[in-house]
Amino acid sequence: MGYLTRRQHRATLTPMGDAKRKGFFLSAALAGSGSALAHEKWFFKGQRPPLELTSVFAPPNLFFVLFALFVTGTAYLWWRLRGYRGLLPGPDFFGGLAWRRSALYGLVPAILGVHVAVPLLVNGVQGTLFAPSSTLPGAWTYVLGLVQTGVALSFFYGGFARAAAVVLALVWTLGLFVVGPEGMLENVLYLGFAGFFYLAGRGPISIDRLIFPRLEPPARLIRYAVPTMRVGVGLSLVAVALTEKLANLPLATGFLEQHPLNFTGALGLPLPDTFFILSAGTVELIVGLFIVFGIFPREIILVAWLPFNLTLTVFNWSELIGHLPFYGAMAVLLVWSSVRGGPLAVDGPDAEKVLEPNVPPEVAASKGL
């Protein structure tokens, strides 16, 4: 008997084995779409199933978690071997001069201030803490609702921003007892943003910079602002991957029953809801871990951008407002790179000693400024 041709060999494959192979590769693509990064708790109707942390350590959930850790560890080693350089070019590759990037980065606190202020204001008015799924009980509705509103206005206008950041951190800590640790871990990004505004202030376009310069942070703290925000955002994605998918399959399954987003059948290869959920949770876990550790930041942001936007037409304004802090953080991380004089362009009230108006940092350095 002669050797089989390649086409004949493919024809001998069993339908089940072929489907499994196709399903593996398809899941890697589809897990980043649909409900991969949707917050199920925001839109789940009825009594939510409780968290099952022990399920993470049982198959098949454990396999998916270990796979996410393996991918993260491997990517970190590759990232380190490349000298912490990404695959995608940064602004400098396209001719962005350091002093111009520094001027742009000076807008970062104002941009993030708006992105954080809007959901804080909406949740404060609606009686929820940071997210629609964390309903405030009793009198806390009015107390923490008012506090969220005040913090939102402070970040929006840039007045007493560092004090508001401390208040925001205290509110998050209080939320551990008022609404529970699970909801606060899912929204630990707000703790990261509290750290950002405490370390960086509200930037040059703010009330603080114009009339309260003594409230500005010391220049030495600003370099830690973006990493603090990045870690908070990444940890939120890690927490959601566990609490809404990998450690709570009943919740995710019920969500898909109410909102049939498992569209693999339309692609000609229907996958079970459980496999779809675990794949989506794994991708979300990988994205979160990459962001926490700063691994290939531009690349992972582009991976995450699609699923963050695909369900906007399904869940409309609620998802748009809730994801605004993520959008702001992703935009910053996508174009971020280090520049001299503090990456937020103006290093507090002594900025004139660092950069003269309209003078590039390289020229300022040669003058000893």
TrEMBL record:
The keyword Hydrolase appears for this protein: no
Domain of life: Bacteria
Ranges that cross the membrane: 62-81, 102-122, 134-153, 160-178, 184-201, 275-293, 300-318
Entry keyword set: Membrane, Transmembrane, Transmembrane helix
Record bears the keyword Transmembrane helix: yes
Identification of the protein by name: DoxX family protein
Gene source species: uncultured Truepera sp
